[in-house]
Amino acid sequence: MINEQTVEKPKPLKRGMLDNVLEQFNHAADVINLNPNVRKILSITNTEIIINFPVRMDNGDVEIFTGYRVQHNNALGPYKGGLRYHPTVDIDAARALAMWMTWKTSLAGLPYGGAKGGIQIDPSKYSKNELERITRRFTYALGENIGPEHDIPAPDVNTNAQTMAWIADTYMSTKSTSERSKNQHVVTGKPTGSGGLEGRDRATGYGVFLTIKFWAEKNNISLAGKKYIVQGFGNVGYWASHFLEIEGAKLVGVQDAFGSVQNKEGISTEDLFNYSISNNGSILGFPEAEPFDSKEFFSIDCDICIPAALGNQITKHNAHTVKATLIAEGANGPTDVEGEKILMERGITIIPDILCNSGGVIGSYFEWLQNRNGELWQMDEILEKLEKKLRTSFEKVVNYTEENKTDMRTAAFSIAIERIEKAYILRGIFP
Ligand SMILES: NC(=O)C1=CN([C@@H]2O[C@H](COP(=O)(O)OP(=O)(O)OC[C@H]3O[C@@H](n4cnc5c(N)ncnc54)[C@H](OP(=O)(O)O)[C@@H]3O)[C@@H](O)[C@H]2O)C=CC1
Ligand SMILES: O=C(O)CCC(=O)C(=O)O
Question: Which of 109, 195, 350, 394 has its CA 20 to 30 A from that of 290?
Answer without folding.
Answer: 350
